[in-house]
Amino acid sequence: MSITTKEVVDAQLHIGTLKSEAHPKTSKFWADVVNGVVVVSPDAIVSQLEAAKEKIQKAKQQGKEVLVVSEKKMYAEELEALGTKYGVSYLNYKVPGGFLTNFDTLKKRIESMNSMERFLETDTYNSLTKKEQLVYKRKLARVFKIYKWVKNLSKKPDLVVVLDGLMMENFVNEVEKQKEVESILICGTNFPRWWKEDSLIIANINSHKSVDYILTNILS
Question: I need a labelling partner for 220 at 20 to 30 A (CA). Which of 8, 90, 159, 170 fits?
Fold first, then answer.
């Protein structure tokens, strides 16, 4: 099903930041400035969403690892549901520093978490005292909070989808260093960097409705 400009407007994707906060590097996507607020071109958003959707679908068809990254609390639960539904890994709580640049170390932590999860299903664990079991459960819960939804990530992701490029600046720095990792950055009109246009979505990322529309459409 194709994305329409009417849907984009209805979902409020075209509402940008205040002009005083917007960055000139996003100005080519602006349609207007109304009452001091940047209005993003709905046509430009449609093109960006369709390009992102095509890139994700192609990666999945080729068996590549897709990772969605977000620290937006307002969308944490919904991202969990979407990631599960569409079969992509995601980080929706806290993104550990060095996730891409030091992935081998992070992978060991993920493997350790998986081993601990398996241990909790063994007779050895069941033979422990309740106090000892509680210690293991608490330890697993702490690492689960961060790594649970990348537990099946067997290698460095081939494609990362980043929600809010400005908020996730440190992670974007990592992406920039990983030339072999493709990216899709979802950003507001305050995004201050040059980025490949076919890897960029400039839209409203401060509205739950808008974010939901973007991610549901590009991941489906």
Answer: 170
pTM across the whole model: 0.90
Q: CA 108, CA 211: separation in Å to the nearest integer?
A: 32
- Read off the tokens for 34: 């109304």
pLDDT digits 0-9 by tens, 36-76 = 999 999 999 999 999 999 999 999 999 999 999 999 988 98
**pLDDT one-digit tens code per residue, 15-39:** 999 999 999 999 999 999 999 999 9
Contact 118, 65 (CB under 8 A): no
Q: What is the DSSP letter of 75?
A: G
Collapse the DSSP code of 105 into the 3-class scheme (helix H, G, I; strand E, B; otherwise coil) and give the result.
Answer: helix
What six digits make up the tokens of 180? 């072999």
What are the φ and ψ backbone dihedral angles of 161, each rounded to 5 degrees?
Answer: -110, 120
